[in-house]
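Review form for a predicted model. The reviewer records the input and the model, then writes brief findings.
Reviewer: anonymous (R2)
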Amino acid sequence: MEKIRVDKWLWTVRIFKSRSMATAACKANKVKIDEKPVKPSTLIKVGETINVRKNGFDLVFLVKGLLKSRVSATLAAECYQDLTPESELNKYKDWYIGKASAEKRAKGDGRPTKRDRRELEGYKEIQYFFDEDFDED
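Model under review:
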């Protein structure tokens, strides 16, 4: 196998959750090869660089291998090299801050009351404020 459709490759290496999402991204000009938008049916080969705009982030991948079907994430990671610039990775990390899971409560305590929730939010704001000051030093 020396060439494969770009939408299928993006799906097999798990850049997109479904092939239809990869196809839609290609049709919306969010997938580029050599700075040129590509159609979903465009054939790619090993060694090409693919630029993908996904969820507001500009991702860059070097094709290292071609797959004919979707495989596990560990096997898929061997088929590309992530060339995304450090600035984009930092942008993602900045966006991801604060997306942690909900607070844990003791079993049997039930849902937090309005007062409890306000106290938690106040604590979070204070903690965030101190974390920002600490990072600048």
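Findings: The helical segments are 6-12, 19-27, 73-77, 86-96, 114-136.
Further findings: The chain is about 40% helix and 20% strand.
Recommendation: see findings above.
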